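Final report, Chapter 2: Outcomes

The project's central promise was a pipeline that accepts a single protein chain and returns its three-dimensional structure in a standardized token representation, suitable for archiving and comparison. That pipeline is now operational. To close this chapter, we reproduce one record exactly as it appears in the project archive, with the input sequence first and the structure output second.
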Amino acid sequence: MTTRCAKAVRQAEANGWFVVSDTSWAGYTEVPRLIMQGYRVMADEVADQWSGDPPTHVFIQGGVGGGRGGGVRADTGAVSAGADADCGRAGPRACLLASAELGEPTRSRATSTR
């Protein structure tokens, strides 16, 4: 769990709140899974309304991967087979950089930059 998530969990517990995050950690996976399903619903709605050839490139905000994982799937025909799905995020994100350098999804144990 990141420092920011731990702080959010502490504040939620202290105030009787419930954490709603698309970032998962040990023991907290159900809500992020549901959020990813919501991202998928949004992607399906876009695909249902799309006319013409499917896009060859999809650009989506990158973070912990929930949006990309839930929203971009070529097997639905919503995007061209072999389409590029590119992520971007303002500021340093060690997991995205490491994944790009290694050419495969990579976890990072980097600490928060804030």
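Archive annotation: Residues 92 and 113 are 8 Å apart (CA to CA).
This record, like all others produced under the grant, will remain available to the consortium after the project formally closes.
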